[in-house]
Specification:
Chain lengths: 333, 321
């Protein structure tokens, strides 16, 4: 518990640092938020009015302090381009991306871990070569290319899966969580769930490709190391079934070093989701952020950066907790 | 203690060769070991580092790297066995470094459960109790890193015994432990042997360890047995010059204040072919014949205990060559 409090403290420092840097950068970069807010046809007087309303003429320090004050109240500000509150936007965009990234990570582990174990247990044999080829392929194929190929094949040619979007246009249900898998299940209609799953299939597959290959390689590597340990020899002499040795005794040891990188891959896939989201017209954080970057919509950029930072911090903390859970020698202090 | 003459031996090893293909050439680690192990005995296997003692006995339970070629015959209770680990059904092992032989991320109980094939807590605790672990029930929930070296070795012994083996191969089981813990572990092995009639092979470079517990001793040099027989005979009347040199280089209370002898030269390189006696280049008594032909094992009658004999592979044994 004390550990958690201390970690929360250091996390706050990290987050504050990131907020400060993005805030300062947004005020230093030459751009005119007021004219963005006022719209393209606004007269100079109107722009000036907006500048005063938004307190953009205040000293940077004053703006910074009031921004931090807003943040502590959970107010992320409003978009200069759309004038909508950013928090409300994030409520729908963030779950869309998290849903993709979580499912992609789960899929990559479900496929990558067993394949990595298999490859390590057949080192140098044909199965190992096949798995390694698969791993290299899946890390090296660019996301936009695999996305287009899959769309072409499964959506256009075979018509098995929808081309893009989160749901079909005629499907509607309440969105209490923003995670459509959960929301569609809550709606109680199996056809809704099926529609959501069909829409998720292609983008999740595309997003999972890189982490899957990475998982295979990491797990294979750390498994090979562990399989050479004396305690594995001892387990073999002890006639413990090879399956148990591989998937329990060895894997738990091999997981810890791989997990750190896999967790960071998850956080990375959240922040780099924009390519997948662009191809699949997925209303997620990546799309939201790229739109904001194009318009130099700084409150949105700052808020999105903040969210991504928080995700990294939370993932890191979670990884450390999981690591301590797996390896009793790790002390949380 | 006349060796394994009357009843058929529990384990019989014939002409065992272990060869490694390495980038530097072919290394012959074991060169034709033949050995009988009688049921219920503690056989000490002694020799310098690099004489092939660990490799030889690890190969019996299939613990050789994939690059190793194991040749020879292995019989267990008269049945032919392969070297691929078939013997694991009858034999278990304890290791030089008990810390490394325990899985760091599972509790002692979780690991013991897998080898013992039962999850009955009382039974598992009983297994730990038998090897003298304090608070056996609590120890089940402990992780290896929470144990001292001696406790870890006791846990490893418990794992080995959990499979109810007939043969226990102890590969330098006390080397990594301090002297008092060494003594405790050796006493434990003796106690277990007395209680269960377990057969033990104790591989060690430490003659003091061997002296303390072994019934019979096999002295290995350059991948072969140079002298084998009852412990008392070998320790009191060593015949092979190598055994004598090994005994002379071991610190003993009666030699207090005297300079320890060391054996000049080194164990022959496993890559070099051996012509004649492998010890000849370092042997103070070597004669011309030693460099020509490998000596056969010759039997020697003990002068102290009549009727007891042991064998040594030296041309000088049993009178002049």
């Amino acid at each position: 518990m004390r550990y958690l409090l201390r970690r929360a403290g250091t996390s706050l420092v990290v987050i504050l640092g990131v907020v400060t840097i993005t805030f300062v950068v947004s005020r230093v970069v030459p751009s005119d938020p007021a004219s963005l807010y006022a719209g393209p046809r606004a007269r100079p007087a109107q722009v000036e009015q907006v500048r005063q309303d938004l307190k953009l003429d205040d000293p940077v320090l004053t703006q910074y302090v009031s921004y931090l004050g807003d943040l502590t109240r959970g107010d992320l500000g409003i978009s200069f381009a759309t004038r909508r509150p950013i928090l409300g936007d994030l409520r729908s965009f963030l779950p869309a991306t998290l849903e993709l990234a979580l499912l992609a990570t789960a899929l990559s582990m479900a496929i990558g871990i067993p394949l990595g174990v298999l490859a390590s247990s057949r080192r140098g044999k044909p199965k190992d070569s096949v798995v390694r080829l698969f791993a290299v392929t899946s890390v090296s194929v660019p996301v936009f290319w695999s996305a287009l190929i899959l769309q072409l094949f499964f959506a256009s040619k075979l018509g098995w899966l929808p081309l893009s979007g989160r749901t079909s246009s005629n499907v509607e249900f309440g969105e209490p969580t923003g995670f459509f898998v959960i929301d569609s299940i809550l709606s109680g209609s199996p056809s809704n769930v099926w529609d959501v799953v069909r829409h998720l299939a292609l983008p999740v597959t595309v997003m999972a490709a890189y982490p899957t290959g990475l998982t295979v390689r990491l797990i294979r590597g750390s498994m090979l190391e562990v399989l050479g340990e004396p305690y594995i020899e001892a387990a073999r002499v002890g006639q413990i079934p090879e399956r148990t040795i591989l998937y329990q005794l060895a894997l738990k040891n091999a997981l810890a070093p791989a997990l750190t990188i896999l967790g960071l891959t998850f956080a990375y896939s959240v922040s780099s989701a924009f390519l997948v989201e662009a191809v699949f017209n997925w209303p997620g954080l990546g799309k939201y952020l790229t739109d904001a970057i194009v318009r130099v919509d700084f409150p949105v950029i700052t808020a999105a950066t903040l969210v991504i930072t928080v995700i990294y911090v939370v993932v890191n903390l979670a990884l450390d907790l999981v690591h301590a859970k797996i390896d009793p020698r790790v002390e949380l202090s | 203690m006349g060796g394994a003459g009357m009843t058929p031996p529990l384990v019989k090893v014939e002409d065992l060769h272990v060869t490694f293909q390495t980038p530097l050439g072919v290394v012959r680690a074991v060169r034709g070991i033949s050995l009988d192990i009688a049921e219920g005995e503690i056989l000490g296997v002694v020799g310098e580092s690099g004489c092939g003692k660990s490799v030889a006995f690890r190969s019996l339970v299939g613990l050789t790297p994939p690059s190793a070629l194991v040749e020879g015959s292995l019989f267990f209770e008269g049945k032919t066995m392969r070297f691929d680990g078939e013997l694991r059904a009858e034999a278990s092992m304890i290791y030089q470094n008990p810390g490394a032989a325990l899985n760091p991320v599972f509790t002692i109980g979780q690991q013991l459960e897998l080898v013992a094939g039962t999850n009955d807590r009382a039974e598992l605790a009983e297994l730990l109790d038998q090897v003298g672990l304090p608070e056996p029930d609590r120890s089940l929930d402990a992780y290896p890193h929470e144990f001292s070296g001696g406790m870890r070795q006791r846990a490893v012994i418990a794992f080995a015994l959990a499979q109810s083996p007939k043969l226990l191969i102890a590969d330098e089981p006390t080397t990594a432990l301090d002297v008092t813990t060494q003594a405790q572990i050796l006493d434990l092995l003796l106690e277990i042997r007395d209680r269960t009639a377990l057969t033990v092979v104790l591989v060690s470079h430490d003659l003091e360890v061997i002296r303390r517990v072994c019934d019979r001793i096999a002295v290995l040099y350059a991948g072969n047995v140079v002298e084998v027989g009852a412990a008392s005979a070998i320790l009191q009347e060593p015949q092979h010059p190598y055994t004598r040199a090994l005994l002379a280089s071991t610190p003993r209370p009666e030699n207090l204040g005297r300079k320890l002898a060391s054996i000049p030269g080194m164990v022959p390189d496993g890559r070099e072919p051996i012509v004649g006696c492998s010890f000849a280049p370092r042997c103070p008594q070597a004669v011309d014949e030693c460099r020509v032909e490998g000596p056969e094992h010759r039997s020697v009658e003990s002068s102290i205990t009549p009727g007891v004999s042991h064998t040594a592979a030296c041309v000088l044994v049993g009178g002049s060559p």
